[in-house]
Amino acid sequence: DTTDRHFRALRIFFESLEGLEGIRRVQLCLYGSPSYVSPSLTSFLESVQSTKCQELHCLGTRRTGLEICVNGRSFLRNSSLEVLNINSPLLFTPPAVSFTLTILRNAPLRKLTLTNTTFKPKQWSTLLSQLDLPQLSQLAVDDTCPIPALVDFLHRHKVCNLLIHHKDDLTPPLLPWRSRSRTPLPSLVVLDGSPAIILSLMRLVDISHPFQRLVVRLDSASVEQNHLLDLLSCTEYLTDLHELHVIIPNNATNLSNYPEGDMRVCPAKDVWLSGTNPLTCTDVISHCAPWMQAFPSICHLWLYTSGEKPANHLKQTFQTFSPMGASLPVHVIRF
Count of domains in the chain? Predict the structure, then answer.
């Protein structure tokens, strides 16, 4: 485990760098997270901040048993941080939370990542309601973040790129349909998440503008009757979609059956289909060929696969189902 002496040694090192220019990025990798967090962590983080770096990345593992809080004293302090990537609960433990909140409330952040935080839904709501980040354009959060609180946060900001991180194997619950006015999010043009999370968000927001990229990370079990219905449910709220990226788990079921009687189509122009594990992905991609019937506006198709089927065979299979027929450009990329 990371111990106090490690933090003290790092603090001494970063203090020796004070006054040097050109330190842009600091990445702290805590693969063995400390079981006890002491104030030495805060003094180390302060020494990092004193270098006037623009990016701070704190990477670790999800660890239970730590006391996590999102309330604490913060200070008015200038900060040069533009990118803050917190992939660990450590920075929200009592010894470090004041430092973290000070950064979140004072730094001119453009990119913010809060994942593996072990936050409870109420903690997410409390934290997001406290933040005002006028320059923020990219945001990543865990799927434990309540969608209504996230929508309220997005409405107050100009976030263009949103990633909702889904780590567990269990499919996150679908937000029940509620009749409420849909919140316009004119800045959002990139969204990445699981079908249940994307659909829960889409039900609460209004995206009538052209959308640049939608990344759908399918779960092994489909939310709807099959995975194509999952996709159509996510994209039916988008009238103009340029790129659709679909990440398909190797143990996915209900891939090839095209839903009879469903007249919905996907407006995506460029489509990427990819397996989740390039070492074990075999022919899971080929089962998706009937999906092409639901893409009348497709211009290009990319297939990422490590399967043994010849590229020409895959191209012809997908072209057979596409409204464009043999004129559909299909690009097969081997892992």
Answer: 1
Among left, alpha and beta (phi > 0; psi -120 to 50; other), residue 321 is: alpha
The tokens for 42 are: 């805060």
How many of the other CB atoms lie within 10 Å of CB of 207? 22
β-partners of residue 266 are none
Query: Does a structural domain hold residue 22?
Result: no
CATH number at residue 311: 3.80.10
Record the pTM.
Answer: 0.90
Measured distance CA(262)–CA(244) in Å, rounded = 20
Task: Characterize 227-252 residue by residue with b for buried, 16 or more Cβ atoms within 10 angstroms of its Cβ, and e for exposed.
Answer: bbbbbbbbbebbeebbbbbbbbbeeb
Q: Secondary structure of the chain: what % helix, strand, coil (to 5)?
A: 30, 20, 50
pLDDT at 66 (0 to 100): 65
More confident of the two residues 156 and 179: 156
